[in-house]
Amino acid sequence: MAQDSIDRHIAFWSREVTDLDPDVEGAVTRMQMLVHHLRRHREAALAVQRLRGWQYDILWRLRSAGPPYEGTPSWLAEALDVPPATLTSRLDRLERQGHIARAGDPADRRRLLVRLTEQGQDAWLAVIREQTIAEHALLDCLTGAQRRQLAELLRAVVVAAEGQGPPLMPVPDTAS
After folding, report:
1. Residue 89: Cβ within 10 Å count
2. How many whole angstroms separate alpha carbon 28 and alpha carbon 35?
């Protein structure tokens, strides 16, 4: 099999760190570099939509709430682990861009709802499409069986990591 830049990294550091496990170093470093590679593609997709990462995160969280893709500011602040004052300024910016709309809750006029607009939906979908293209391009070198095997191996690693702490991936939930 052909060597990659990580093999050269391991060869160098094996001379410097005598107890380096090349399999662990190779797997972890490759995962880190692949995430970095995909992050660059994500940033490019965000730039096309004139979005920053935190803006996309808000759109994603609203989309994850399910139709009608809305939630309260307090729910968003908690879900995104952002102070309410910070969230307010971020929502102001997204609203000026037309990606969200804020309105009173018809069921409780004391509550404010933040809703994903059609423009916000379109921007979110455009970024998702570009991410999907990049992910498929990355894994096109593998057969279907190899992709399934890779997914299973990574699942085992995630299960072990989650056994030591909280879930690694936030699960979409409702804004209620």
Report:
1. 9
2. 11
| H or E segment and range at residue 71 | strand 70-71
Would you say the pTM of this structure is higher than 0.90? Answer: no
What's the pLDDT tens digit per position in 40-71?
Answer: 999 999 999 999 999 999 999 999 999 999 99
Domain spans, the chain: 1-48, 53-121
**The pair of three-digit structure tokens given for residue 159, joined into one six-digit string:** 């299960």
The β-bridge relationship of strands 100-105 and 108-116 is antiparallel
Residue 109: band (very low, low, confident or very high) from pLDDT cuts 50, 70, 90: confident
DSSP string computed for 89-148:
HHHHHHHHTTSEEEEEETTEEEEEEEEE-HHHHHHHHHHHHHHHHHHHHHHTTS-HHHHH
pLDDT reading at 146 higher than 60: yes
The closest alpha carbon to 174, from 55, 58, 71, belongs to 71
Nearest to 71 by CA among 108, 105, 110, 122: 105
Q: Are 99 and 91 in contact (CB under 8 A)?
A: no
CATH 3.40.50.2300, applies to 53-121:
no
Check residue 166 and report its DSSP letter: S
Nearest CA to 175 among 96, 111, 89?
111
